[in-house]
Amino acid sequence: MTLVIGCNSSKSTSSERKNENPFAVQLGKRITLIGIAENLKEGARLGGFERQIFIDDMESWPDELYGKKVTVTGTLIERHDLPVYIPEHENDYRCARPYPIGTDLHEAAQRYLLKDAKWMIVKE
Asked: Which DSSP helix (H) or strand (E) runs through 120?
């Protein structure tokens, strides 16, 4: 299955956005995505999506794939392990992403991963 994500610029509530999340209904399923191989502190990411999509157990893409358009197939899983926090004062700096008071940190720490992933470069 190839999952294609589009952007919706209309305003919606948090629960409506959750219901519109095409990844949520694919959890536990083997899917195929096309994106750009990117490296972040948190690991190898498949760029080009509104949501965080990482490759499970992979710190970075091989040099020959970095920055390239790739097709990746794997089982979609979810974790809530991104480093996030709500600053306690104006100069509260940590090695994590700050969020405003009232943010659900469990949701802010959420990311998707492709487990047992296989990939190949997309020939342009």
From this structure: strand 110-121
Place of tokens 């970095």: 66
- Strand 69-80 versus strand 84-85 pairing type: unpaired
What separation, in Å, do the N-terminal and C-terminal C-alpha atoms of the chain show? 21
Distance CA(119)–CA(106), nearest Å, equals 30
- The Cα diameter of the chain in Å comes to 50
pLDDT tens, position by position, 56-115: 999 999 999 999 999 999 999 999 998 899 988 877 777 788 899 999 999 999 999 999
Residues of the chain by 3-state class (helix, strand, coil), percent to 5: 10, 40, 50
Residues in a beta bridge with 114: 55, 76
Q: Please give the sequence-ordered ranges of beta strands (E in DSSP) within 23-109, or none if there are none.
A: 30-40, 43-47, 53-55, 69-80, 84-85, 97-98
